[in-house]
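Model: You mentioned two targets. I'll fold them one after the other.
Researcher: Yes, keep them separate.
Model: Target one:
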Amino acid sequence: MISGRQKSSRSLASPSSSRFVTETVNGSHNFVIKGYSLAKGIGVGKHIASENFTVGGFQWAIYFYPDGKNPEDNSAYVSVFIALASEGTDVRALFELTLVDQGPNGKHKVHSHFDRSLESGPYTLKYRGSMWGYKRFFRRTLLESSSFLKDDCLKINCTVGVVVSAIDSSRLHSIHVPDSDIGDHFGMLLENEEGSDVTFNVCGERFHAHKLVLAARSPLFEKEFFDGMKEENHDVVVTDTDPKVFKALLHFIYTDNLIEDEELSDASSLCMSSLSDGLAAKLLAASDKYGLPRLRLMCESVLCKIMSVNSVAIILALADRYRAMDLKSVCLKFAAENLVAVMESDGFEYLKENCPLLQSELLKTVAGCDEELSGGEKTRSVWGQFSDGGDTNDRSVRQRTWENGGERSQSIWVPLSDGGDARGRSRSRSPRQDD
């Protein structure tokens, strides 16, 4: 008899894999401070804040202290900090602050966590309002005699890298898919005019296009070209716009992008008197007429970037006229937060004469802004702008306002038409003295 042991065979499954990845999500913000000399003297520990910007799912802001943050320094240094401006707990991040040298040498002052080893790892911000930065960022006397300060202007660039970690169990190898280039192909179709079947005559300038493309993008063109009740039309005369605007309109319809134009890339160069006649405003009107919501948003974004105390009233009127609701909401909030200055602008006179209903909406927004502040947030009351010529301490103005809210709401507008000043006081009366 032959005896022995039989070997058992086991089949092995294909091994799986995973990896734990820690990396940073980076974003930058450029902060320009104009009128540095006027900002001095606001007091130690008081700052000028940039607009909030978003990186890694959190909001951030740059705080600049013209008189320094530390009382012990006796305003000998300016301070710069990056603050967590949204809710968050133990947010880990890397930071870089750059004071831009505006002279020919370009020797910027840089404080950076990036591209170097950190002994204790990234900086941790515990909660909203936590900051990282330098109390002694730059000695003031040296700053004011350096090329960092030019035309009373400082430029500070900030980069934030939020640390994120995740398990990546996807395949370790991937194939990159390039961005869509369909817009480039359709743009060539428009440029080459190949297969065009309709011609637009705009003030004597002719544009060749394709009915199917136009109809697919715009409900107005669809109705114009494919309404069974209408005769086929190969030549269309356009009388309500100019060639530059119509060319930009066709470019968007074919490519889904704004045309490259200096007026759109640097709309801030427009003077207030020409704002309503600018390319962005006219394209906003075209987006409303032809039913192009993405073009509307693009124009809203351009106009939003140039919004100021002097221009907000005109931009608000444009937004209301062409149903640009996002832009209108931003304008109302901005005007409410800067009400006194806006009411003294030429644009506000235009608003009074041409858009009286918008004044009621602005009042409601003012009331809403002040109501939000009643939660205890430490910021300037909107109504407080009317006390003592714009006193920022917001003493008891809010309480008095709500006790007699109806009378206060009415008094904002009336003095502008019967000799009052923009703060709601009659010019014949002496302004009361500061406390």
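Model: Target two:
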Amino acid sequence: MAKPILTRISPFDGMKEKMVSFSWSGNQSYANRLIIYEANTLATVYDVKVTSMTYNHTIPSNTLTNGKKYIAQCQVFDIENIASELSDKIFFITYETPEFYFYNIENEQTIRAASYEAIIYYFQPDYEEIQSYKFYLYDGTKTLLSESDTLYDGNNIKYTYKALDNHTKYFIRCSGNTVNGMEVDTGYIQIYTDYKIPSSYGLIYAENDPQHGYIKLHTNITVIECSDDKMFNFQDGMIDLRNDAIHYEEGFVIPDNFTLILRGMALNQTATILEMSNTQYTITVSSYLHDDGKTRFKLTVPNPLGNYILYSNPESFAENAMAGIWVRRINDVYSLKVFIEEDYSLENNMWYGRQLPSNPELYDSWIDTEDMFTYVVDKDVMKVYTSDDEPEENINIDDLWI
């Protein structure tokens, strides 16, 4: 008969059951036999034949001793109980399951910031070192949102989750492998975010590059290109769409439940503000300026019985006020809220440092810089330069060059 081939056995905990597999190309298997020897003495510690048509064999728990080296062989039997040759021997090790868990967070803990530094505790009694690991972030349904690069620093197993949305349930997880291939995994840990600082603080973070003498600014924002070829006027972070429109045909994903926020100025007019279409229907947000100078916003959503329509309360506001239109869908139930900011300012203060600002104004920006106590640069003192060439004269350390 042919000879089966044992699949490589990764290190595992001898106190737990372990299923090993093999490949086989001979007659139909009706039973298999697994033999395990202690590597140093070649003494047989396990020799069991099981009736099974599958190509695997489960070693019962508490069969092997942790911290030892073993050799394994397997054998296959057909329906007439004719045995195959013994497979080639393979070598494996047993280790006690390492302790591997999030050291500074508990399941269902509430996070009070838009970013969180997760630290892993790792210990293995036989001093089996961890070789590599990854951190993962999932949404409330355990759908993967992002993952870290493969990391290798076994003495400092940590990772900072950034740009976490407020009032949101997430799951975090870390998994890795030891130097001999033993798998470790924290499992899913549920967290919930609830913080008072606007979530925009979590969108930009800084990384010092001392070798080149500059600071890298990172963001989790994805740039989505519009589908139009025409040029648009951008000013103060906004696009001027009065008497114009912009189209996007890709880059947007609207989940079953969502919150959509539209922010703009000069919205006290009669106009269609937004249309979102798919292959089935179109969601429309529009405005209507009444004769008394008040503006109402309207949400229109088609459904099988007609149109699902919601109106906001009439609002009277100046052209330079900032209007925020919030559209939310939860289990096919829509809501429409409008917030008017009459004292909106295009300028804001800048905060630098590793700690969250203590008392920021609403539109302040925070640059998360390591090894620096947090301090604020007042918007009335800071100069902002927008040019292709770096400014050369009368520059202060906290001025901003874009």
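Researcher: Noted. Anything on target two?
Model: The radius of gyration is 31 Å.
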